[in-house]
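2024-03-11 09:14:02 INFO receiving multi-entity request
2024-03-11 09:14:02 INFO entity count = two
2024-03-11 09:14:03 INFO echoing inputs for audit
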Amino acid sequence: GIQVEQSPPDLILQEGANSTLRCNFSDSVNNLQWFHQNPWGQLINLFYIPSGTKQNGRLSATTVATERYSLLYISSSQTTDSGVYFCAVERVLNAGNMLTFGGGTRLMVKP
Amino acid sequence: DAGVTQSPTHLIKTRGQQVTLRCSPKSGHDTVSWYQQALGQGPQFIFQYYEEEERQRGNFPDRFSGHQFPNYSSELNVNALLLGDSALYLCASTQGNNQPQHFGDGTRLSIL
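2024-03-11 09:21:47 INFO inference complete, emitting structure
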């Protein structure tokens, strides 16, 4: 099956700092999503980005499908950004569209 | 517009028992998927239901089964519970292909 690797696995930032999270995947995919899992376990959709660049406030994401990677940028980080960030890719096989998740990047933002 | 809802939020069972988890998809969605998330790991795909049939299945034993109802809601059943089944179980819904999947808040299952 497809492999999804995220880096770095852990990240500690001071409030106000910027960061870049990376997601590499081993095969072509139809779609890619970035999620933020908060300390209560809720998985929150950040971006649905099979290719190109999108921005939402302090967050932006870029996917280069031909080179099999995606980047998530967090600018002016806040303590509420803490949690785990997951990248998940989707391959449509036999009419199904399962998501394969990476191992996540655990982010802690200190005040 | 209600999102994906799951029940119960927490559940404690003992080894060998059976459990049923429930999921109502986001309004307008017809496809439901279930994922298992062990502590410290990313979610793992269990199976997906569409038109009341299992459309795709991950690498999980037959102890894990499911059902989808005509109103698109879904159940996940796990038989003969093992300690290793302790996890957060997440339900996701979507409408067709090439659309984002939306997740519920999950059910935390603890096996004693």
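2024-03-11 09:21:48 INFO post-check: The CA atoms of residues 91 and 97 of chain A lie 6 Å apart.
2024-03-11 09:21:48 INFO post-check: The mean pLDDT of chain A is 94.
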